[in-house]
Structure formats: C-alpha cells, structure tokens
Amino acid sequence: MSTLHTINKSPFSHSTLASCLQVCGKQDGILLLEDGVFGALASSPCAEELATIIETGVRVYALKGDVNARGLQEKIRAGILLTDYNGFVQLSIEHKCVQSWY
Amino acid sequence: MNQTPSKKILFISRHAPYGTSLAKDALDAVLSSSAYDQQLSLLFMDDGVFQLLKNQASGEIAHKSFSSLLPVLPLYEINSIYVHYESLKKRQITINELVLDSVQIIDSSAICSLLAQQDQLLSF
Amino acid sequence: MIFSLAIYAAPYTSQASDSAYRFALALLENGHTLYRVFFYQDGVHTASSLNTPPQDEIHFTHNWQALAQQHNIDLIVCIAAALKRGLLNKQEASRYDKPAFNLAEGFEISGLGQLVDAAVISDRLITFGG
C-alpha cells in the first residue's frame, strides 16, 4: 500500500518538500497545497528532484484553488497535475495513509 | 472497541524541541495513546532528531527536558522507536549522543516501507 | 468511507484551518462520513464562542457548528491544549473558579486519547498542521 504526502509549506523557506522527496516511494502520491504550491514552480529549490520522481511514476498534484490564488496559473511546470478538494478526498482514499508535512 | 482489530499507528515527530510546542504535543499524544491497545510506533526525523540529544538542561527556559521525558517511552506500550539515519547524518549527530539506546536507526528507503505498512499516520 | 480530521492550525493565522474545512465539505459532498474533528495545539481557538470575524471573512466556529449539527460530527477540543489557552467550558470554568466560559456550543472538551481513538475508528485520519 502507499502513502499520500501533503505539503503546505514553500520549498523556498522550508525543507518539508525535500524531506518528503527523500522518503517518497514509487507508488506514493504528493499533493501540494497552500504555500506548498510554490513547489510546483520550475524555479523551486526541489525542481530537479521533483522532475526525477515524476519520471519514476510518482503523481504530483497541486491544488488548483491555491495555485490560482497565488497567480501561478501560467508558471506551473509540466508534469504537475492540478486537482481540487474532491480530488484531494479521492487521493486520500486511493492511498492507504496520509502524511502531512508541515 | 473490543471488536475493532488493533491498528498500526505511526507517530511522526519532525520538529525540534522547545522552539514550538510540536515536539511536546507529539510526545503527549504518543503517551496518551498507549492505553488504547494499538500497535504504536514513533519515528523521529528532520529536526525531530534534536529531541533525542543527551545533556539537555532546560531549567532556564521553564520547560521539562526531553532528555528526561523521552526515557519514559519504553515504559509505555510503544512497539518501536525509529530514527531517520539521514537526518542524524545531516546534523552530524552520532548514536552515542542519543538519550535512548533502544532506537532503530533506519534510512530513507526503510522509512518509505515503514510508512506503507501503517494503517494511520499521525503527523507532528 | 469514515474520515476524521486532526486540526492543529490556528484559525485566521494559517490557511490550513480553511483547507481542513474545505476538505470536510468535499468528503461529505462525496457521500463519506466524517466521524470526528480533533482540535489540538492552536487549533483549539476554533472552538471559542467569542470569535468575531468581520462579516466578509469565514466564521469557522459557526461553520463547524452547522456542519456538525447537519452531519452528526464529533467536534472534540483537546482539554490540555484548550485550558492553557483560555478555552473553557462551564464545568472547567467552575472547577478553576473562572468568571466565564467560552467553549462554543457543539464542541466538546475531552482528552488527547480521542485523537488515537479517531485513528482507530476511522479509515482515514488527515492532519492539518499550521
């Protein structure tokens, strides 16, 4: 079974995304929300690691409402999937556990 | 409650002691949970590993020291205590400096499988 | 599926407080059950009957009360976290000889054990940290 990781802090000032990426398995999912959506930028300090993990098959999502609120609609890097709260609920069901990195 | 099969519950403590209440709140949650007859374990990672240092003398900041708080853990029904190897390494903390000697040091990929084995994660 | 939420974030300080509420709405809309919301750390401030946000801001206390009433949800406030932050029910106010109490209706003060109890009873426990 697999884990859904949620990240709500900006990788520009917190290490939560970096920590999550260290322990994220191939079957796991990552959801960026709140200030965590800054992690979806191409300029993110974790951009390279994120790209690598997406290549291995990990699905990385960003909460659309949080992306739009921050004016990042056009700045989200390729490979990041947008979702909403219904999607968040669905992801939490598809994975066995949810680890909140905050 | 009696009919409910016991669950594997992992507490993840990722914050340094004293600066915020998160470390103490995590510990309180672990201790309060031990009466519920579940398979509990505890993982220290990131700055959470600073809770494990010996010689914490917190008298001057009016806070109970984690060096004295953590050794009660084995008295409660906590199955396993894990410490993230890379978090220790990054902070140049050696095993000899830890206040608990019954911990299991595990690396990132072992944590990945540890998380996958759980029924619930309590994130602190 | 049965869900419980653990809210550690302070209302109006952290967006996580709002995220938790939106998650609750979505799971209920999708036909799932919300068994318990456990308020801990600064999350306990959500349960103060004195919270008075301006009219154009979300009233978390009222929103949770309404949701709990409509869907029969346990709103539990950790007693240790609540008391030290000045959040008391009538019984605790009288026990500690305080002139007033402020726990909003629909919320209940209880022990930290209710958090692990929620983890045991629910299929999913989601933490919203500040």
Q: What does the largest sheet of chain C look like?
A: 5 strands, parallel
What share of residues are in beta strands of chain A?
15-25%
How many helices of chain A does DSSP assign?
A: 4
* CATH architecture identity of chain A: 3-Layer(aba) Sandwich
* Residue runs with pLDDT of under 50 for 5 or more positions of chain C: none
| Strand arrangement, major sheet of chain C | 4-3-2-1-5
Helical fraction of chain C equals 25-40%
Distance between the termini of chain C: 26 Å
Question: In total, how many domains does the architecture of chain C comprise?
Answer: 1
What would CATH call the homologous superfamily of chain A?
DsrEFH-like
Radius of gyration of chain C: 14 Å
Task: Round the mean pLDDT of chain A to the nearest integer and report it.
Answer: 97
CATH topology of chain A: Hypothetical Protein Ychn, Chain: A
Percentage of helical residues of chain A?
25-40%
Main interface: chain pair and counts: B-C, 21 and 20 residues
Structure overview:
The complex is a heterotrimer of chains A (102), B (124) and C (130). Chain A is α/β, with parallel strands linked by helices and 102 residues long. Chain A has a single domain, classed as DsrEFH-like (Hypothetical Protein Ychn, Chain: A), CATH 3.40.1260. Helices cover 32% and strands 22% of the residues of chain A. Chain A contains four helices and five strands. Chain B has 124 residues and is α/β, with parallel strands linked by helices. Chain B has one domain (8-123): Hypothetical Protein Ychn, Chain: A (3-Layer(aba) Sandwich), CATH 3.40.1260.10. Chain B has four helices and five strands, in the order βαβαβαβαβ. Chain B has a five-stranded parallel beta sheet with strand order 4-3-2-1-5. The mean pLDDT of chain B is 94. A five-stranded parallel beta sheet of chain C has the order 4-3-2-1-5, with helices on both faces. The relative contact order of chain C is 0.26. Chain C has one domain: Hypothetical Protein Ychn, Chain: A (3-Layer(aba) Sandwich). Chain C has 130 residues and is an alpha/beta fold. Chain C starts with a strand and ends with a strand. Helices cover 36% and strands 21% of the residues of chain C. The interface between B and C is medium-sized, with 21 and 20 residues.
